[in-house]
Amino acid sequence: MPVIDVASLLPLLIAIPLVGAIFSVLLSTKYAQVLIGLLSALALVLVIGLILVNLPSVGTEFTTPLRYVLAGWEAPLGIALSLDGFSALLLSLTVFLVTVLTFYSAFYFAASPARVRFWPLWWLLVAGINALFLSADIFNVYVTLEIIGLAAVALVALSGNKAGLTAALRYLLVGLLGSLCYLLAVALLYHVYGTLDFAQLAAKAESNPLSWAALALITVGLVLKTALVPLHFWLPHAHGSAPAPVSAILSALVVKASFYLLVRFWMEILAPAVTNEALMLLGILGGAAILWGCVQALRAKRLKLMVAYSTVAQIGYLFLLFPLLMSTEEASASQLAAQQQSALAAVSYFIVAHACAKAAMFIAAGNIIHSLGHDDIAKLQGMAKYMPLSLFTFAIAGGSLIGLPPSAGFIAKWLLLNVAIDTHQWWWVVIILTGGLLAALAIFRVLDLAFIKPEQASDHVAPDSWQKVPVAMPASGLALALCTMALGFNADLIIDLIAIGGGE
Amino acid sequence: MTQALLYGVFGIALFGIGLFGVLAIAHVVKKILAINICGVGVFMVFIANASSGAAPDFVPHAMVLTGIVVAVAGTAMALSLVVRINALEKPEEDA
Question: Residue A332 contacts by C-beta under 8 Å, 6 or more apart in sequence?
């Protein structure tokens, strides 16, 4: 096999979507934009495939993450990109979802004038997400957060109606405030440690008041962007009013991007400043998010709003990672490292499972809106007859969100429960199971209505204005939903990937 | 108290004033202004960093410049959204 420098491929993951964005502005005819989209997605798949194939495998030579120094300037002056198992997993997930959603968007926006503005913003958003996962510099991360934030807000505003614009404005203000909290922490960290590089900071970081202040600011800023209860107020409307492919990427990837950063800071960069009480606090908020999100999903009147509230609940599960990282007196350092590694593996699995299932659900909801013109849950009676594929997608993805075997959601919850029991934190088991039950109620409420025969329903609205959608639209949702099933059978792949470069 | 420390402390105070404004004021344009005050506070902390050594450090300067560009873009976007929302709220005045 020819020796290629895998690290030199890393900048391509950022350059390809940026070039795609520029060409989507220059060549703004319908077919040119779709062609650019498909080519960019194909190029991204090739690059990430080449990187994954050439990653050092676990147990052989894995020690250090891949590192690429931009323009040859080493830190602290220059900016580096780096890739370890965790970021490789999230990048692969991004490329996969973006490919499917690009295909879907080609049909979703086929007849919409918003497409001219959609495509450049779409690729800008993808560039921002990829750059965030690759970045190894805390200031560069701020820039990527803002690229993601501005592109995402513009995409939410695409609908152009008042509800969409108001949601976009609130999303923008929340995003700016979160970024500024983060930026102030960057200023404090640079003042104390004189470097912006992840690895150099991790080596220098100590437990002192300024590190605590920085960690607190970073946490508030990123929790605001991740929409953890009680800072979730902006999410349901922003995710619920955006066009379907945008909702899908916002729920599947954008909130995960800020969560990824939180994990980086809490587990690596500022690990010495972390205390058990703080870990527990994040866990309690996560538990509250699970219950609150599920209850609101049950009460939601619109389908997309319900799916968005389910995202609030699913984010709660991600934050259960933090209490599971806690050290105990009797555990040795190697036991603690193994415990933290399995907690991270469980949550990474959760991220992948939720991303695929939620993107599939938003696609299904988007198809329903596309054909009916509304997504009022009460008026979905008998829809299974008209849109069997979309409802089927919704059901499979819902099964994964509830955590029914053999879906990826089941494996993710199983892994999480295992770690919770191993660390003697049984109360999380109760919350995880209750959350699953409440999610099941919310999903079955929709399915129950959808399978009622219209003539049995008292005030059903005949879908007169019903439009047929191209079969490719439900098909791309179904592909994602089936992926959640396939992932349930191949759990080892993901767990092995996480271990790369994660060991001491 | 050195000059740099003074700048840093006042920067953090400005950030606090801005934060209070974002949370306490309902008026959306004032909220946008408050976010800008937050931003100025953060930039002052960076500038204080730059002057704390013997020779000025240029890395914080680069960061502040980047931060200003982002703040301008964000403010412009927020204001254009406000204008658009207002236009939708009062269609009779436009016509």
Answer: none
Mean pLDDT calculated for residue range A260-274: 94
Number of domains in chain B: 1
Q: What residues of B are in contact with residue A187 (Cβ under 8 Å)?
A: 11, 42, 45-46, 49, 60
Contacts of B49 in chain A (CB under 8 A): 187, 190-191
Ramachandran category for residue A85: left, alpha or beta (phi over 0 → left; psi -120 to 50 → alpha):
alpha
Bridge partners for A80 per DSSP: A69
- With CA atoms as reference, report the closest residue to A463 among A452, A454, A471: A454
Instruction: Measure the CA–CA gap between A273 and A293, rounded to whole angstroms.
Output: 30
Write down the pLDDT at residue B59.
87
As to burial, measured by CB atoms within 10 angstroms (0-12 exposed, 13-18 middle, 19+ buried), residue A341 is middle
- Secondary structure of residue A66 in the 3-state scheme: strand
Q: CB–CB of B85 and A161 under 8 A?
A: no
Contact list, B8 vs chain A (CB under 8 Å):
191
For chain B, give percent helix, strand, coil, nearest 5: 85, 0, 15
How large a percentage of chain A has pLDDT more than 90? 68
| Model pLDDT for residues A354-410, shown as the tens digit of each residue | 999 999 999 999 999 888 888 888 888 878 888 889 999 999 999 999 999 888 999
Residue A58 pLDDT level (bands cut at 50, 70, 90): low
Q: Out of B19, B39, B85, name the one closest to residue A162 (CB).
A: B85
Q: Which of residues 7-66 of B touch A (CB under 8 A)?
A: 8, 11-12, 15, 19, 22, 28, 31-32, 35, 38-39, 41-42, 45-46, 48-49, 52, 59-60, 63, 66
CA-based nearest residue in chain B for residue A157: B81
Probe site for chain A from B27, B44, B80, B81 (most A CB atoms < 10 A): B81
For residues B33-57, average pLDDT: 88
8 A C-beta contact, residue A264 and residue A198: yes
C-alpha A30/C-alpha A24 separation (Å) is 10
Cβ-based burial of A359 (10 A; exposed 0-12, middle 13-18, buried ≥19): buried
Q: In terms of Cα–Cα distance, which of A226, A100, A86 is closest to A478? A: A100
Alpha-carbon span B53 to B4, nearest angstrom? 9
Q: What CATH number has the domain bearing residue B55?
A: 1.10.287
Domain that residue B71 falls in = 3-94
* Chain B environment of A139 (Cβ under 8 Å): 63, 66
